[in-house]
Prior knowledge:
- The protein is α/β, with parallel strands linked by helices.
- It folds into two domains: 3-32 and 200-379, Rossmann fold; 40-194, 3-Layer(aba) Sandwich (Rossmann fold), CATH 3.40.50.
- 43% of the residues lie in helices and 14% in strands.
- It has 15 helices and ten strands.
- The strands form two sheets. The chain has a five-stranded mixed β-sheet, sandwiched between helices. A five-stranded parallel β-sheet has the order 3-2-4-5-6, with helices on both faces.
- Helix 7 (155-163) links the parallel strand 5 (145-149) and strand 6 (167-169).
- The radius of gyration is 22 Å and the shape is globular.
- The model has no long low-confidence stretch (mean pLDDT 95).
- The protein binds 5-phosphoarabinonic acid.
Amino acid sequence: xxxxxxxxxxxxxxxxxxxxxxLDEYLKKIEARDLGFYKLHEDKExxxxxxxxxxxxxxxxDHFIVLGIGGSSLGTICLQQSLTHLFKAxxxxxxxxxxxxMLSQIEDVIDYSKTLFIIVTKSGGTPETLSQYYYFREKVxxxxxxxxxxxxxxxxxxxxxxxxxxxxxxxxxxxGRFSVLTPVGLLPAALLGLNIADLLQGVEEAWNNKELAFxxxxxxxxxxxxxxxxxVMMPYSQRLIRLADWYSQLLAESIGKNENTGIxxxxxxxxxxxxxxxxxxxxxxxxxxxIFIEVSDLGPTLQIPENPISYLKGVxxxxxxxxxxxxxxxxxxxxxxxxxxxxxxxxSEKTLGALFLxxxxxxxxxGEFYGIxxxxxxxxxxxxxxxxxxxx
Length: 392
Ligand code: PA5
């Protein structure tokens, strides 16, 4: 089970104990929005369809390419980084940019006829994703495409219907950055051979432990009221480095809604960023909350060989990493820097599924605390419209 530890002197000043009785009240506000992101574990039919498609197609292709951006790509990138081998040549590439170098170089490593293209866009109209699709459509056999999009709306759905291309549905009431546990993340994960039933079981476990998300959101909210408007997510696990990317979008796009409402997400990695960012966190402005992600089981115990450094004698890399986390945590606490720890038993499908939902729910709670709509993103429209204007 995933736990949240807020037990240190920097957080005890934040009086969230008086707020915990408000959980049900705020939950009702979230439920009143009639959203689907926290009910995805109930959809056994989609799980079955995705699994079947993946089982039929996994070995037919050498590579899988996801075309998508934002909420249509970040969850998949996180799933791949967290749950597949860190160094084996990847079978799946996510092209979440329109940089022509990236788009043209991909053919140096894939054979179009042996690659399945998964086109992901909730709205079905995102120009970056559609232009990528039209680029590859000229090169790739039509049977090598599968779509993931809105059940009814959008250009991609129209093409799927007209050209009989298989197309999975993103439920109408699940928005882009909350969609990782729909076919958006489930299909690529299943194609990679990951256990998607476990992912959804994790979601169910997180839903049954909503206190975690509520406590996290309360802590962030109360600290932000004291001017601590930056949240640094720092996993101590190479596998979880892309979780912080996924969370950055979730937090930034959901909460940054007006001049007084927003939490700036920052990505960090333990132990790597102890040697690049920690100085700032320990002695710079007191405007941050650090969220450590601690993993109890970091993998096979790897002993540091005999060496002349006395304090490393008989120590494993696992122990060194955990000790550095503890030392970093204590240094921040001593310096009066707010920090909390989300602790996972291990990085697995189940814990990652649970973590996605805990974090999504915490952001939904935050939105209700601020009294904003955490599920839209009007602020990105202006740039989109200007792009259209300039190209027209
Ligand atoms: O969270 C959101 O809704 C957005 O960030 C989208 O994920 C992003 O803009 C991509 O949209 P779409 O999936 O419609 O292509």
